[in-house]
Structure prediction request, 525 residues.
Amino acid sequence: MGLTIAIAVVCFAVGAGLSYLFFRYGLKTKYENIIKEAETEAEVIKKNKLLEVKEKFLNKKADLEKEVALRNQKIQQVENKLKQREMVLNQKQDEVQRKRNEAEAIKANLEAQIAIVDKKKEEWDQKKEELDQKKEELNKVHQQELEKLEALSGLSAEEAKERLIESLKEEAKTEAASYINDIMDDAKMTANKEAKRIVIQSIQRVATETAIENSVTVFHIDSDEIKGRIIGREGRNIRALEAATGVEIVVDDTPEAIVLSAFDPVRREIARLALHQLVTDGRIHPARIEEVVAKVKKQVEEEIIETGKRTTIDLGIHGLHPELIRIIGKMKYRSSYGQNLLQHARETANLCAVMASELGLNPKKAKRAGLLHDIGKVPDEENELPHALYGMKLAEKFKEKPDICNAIGAHHDEVEMTSLLAPIVQVCDAISGARPGARREIVEAYIKRLNDLENLAMSYPGVTKTYAIQAGRELRVIVGADKIDDKQTECLSAEIAKKIQDEMTYPGQVKITVIRETRAVSFAK
Prediction:
C-alpha cells in the first residue's frame, strides 16, 4: 500500500515534471515564434522606414539640385550681365579714349590755327596802321583839291552836292518811266499768250470724260416670263410700282428688257434697284412693292452720302461739313444742260487746282471752291434765288471760308469778286461747260418743264405725290383718300388741266390722271 502510494507519488511527480517540461517547451516555442514574427515585422518596418528615409533623401536631394541649378542659372545670368556690362564699359572706354584723342588732335589743330591767326592779326594791325596813315594823307589831298575846286567854281561842296543829287533824280525819273513803259508793252504783248498757255495746259492735264445724261434706263431680265409677274393681275403690280416710284415702266416686245422712263435720275435708280430686288426675291405684289421701294430709297440716300465721301477723298478735300458732303453726293443724280453735275464739279475742281498752281495760288482752296461752286443746283427745298447765290448761302451756313463763299457766289457775276479764286472758278466753270458735246440746252429745258408740271400740281391741297411721265405727255396726281372724294377728283383734274393751259408752254397735249385709293390695313397678331 505504501509502495503503491510511493509509486503513485513518483508517477505523479514524474508526470508533473514532464508536464512542466512540455509546458516550458511550448512556451519557449511560442516565444520564439513571437520573437521571430516581431523580428520579421521589425525588419519590414525598418526596410519601410529606410525606403521612406531614402525617398525623402532623394526628394530633398532633387530639390537641392533644382535650387542649386536655379542658383547656378541666376549666377550665370549675373555673370552674363556682368560680361555684357564689362563689354559695354570697354566699348565706352574705347569710345572715350578715341574721343579724347580726337579732342587732343582738335585742340592741337586749334592751337596751331590760333597761332596762325595771331600772326595774321599782327600783320593786319601793321597794314591797318599803314592804311590809316595813307587815309590821312588822302584826306589832306582831298581837302586841298576841294578847296581848289571851290575856288575855281565859286560853289561850296554842299551846294555842288545838292545840284548833283537833283540832276541824278531827274535822270532816274526819266529812266524809270521808260522802263515802266517797256514793261507794260511787254506785258500787253505776252499776257494773252500766257493766259492761253495756262488755259490750254489746264485743259490738257484734266481730260475727264463727257457724260451726257438721258431719261431712259434699260432693266435687263433673264427671261420674258418675268414680265408677266411684273405686270401682275390686271396690271396691279406695274401700277403700284409706277405709283410708288414715279417712273413710267414700259414693258413691250423687246426681248429680255424693260424700259424705265423718267426725267429724274434718282427716281430711275430707285425703280431699277427696287425691280432688281423684287425679281431676285420673287415675291411681287403691291404691298411688297411699297415695302421694297421704301427700303431702296434709304439705300439710295446712303449711296448719295458714300458718293460724296468718295469724291472728297479722291480730290483730297478734307474738313467739309457732312451736309455739304451729302449735297455733293446728290450731284451724281443731277444734270446741268445734259452734263452730269458731279462730273462737271470734279472737272471744274481739277481745272481750278491746275490753274491756281500755274498762277502761284493755293491749289487746295481753288479745288475746294471748284467742287462746291454748283451746290446751289441741288436744293432740298424750292427757292427763288439763283443757284450761285443759294450755293454761297449754303457755304456760309456750313462755315466755309469767305474767299471760297465769294468764289461760289461770284462765278456768274451775281456778286462782286473779292479774291483771285473767284475769276479762276468762273473761267474753269466756263471751260468745263463750253467743250463740244458737254451740254445740251434741250435736255435742260425739257427737265425744267417736267419739274414745273409736277410743282404746279403739288400746289393744290390734298395732293400727296405728282409724277410727270411719258416725256411730259401725262401727269399723274396721287391724292389722299381722306382729303378728296371721287367727285372732287374730277374737278381737280379739270382745274390742273386749265392751269397748265394758261401758264405753261408745251408741245402736243398733256393728260392729267388723278388717282385716289382707299386702303384698309390690319395686322393679325
User: Anything to note?
Assistant: The mean pLDDT is 79. The CA atoms of residues 104 and 313 lie 59 Å apart.
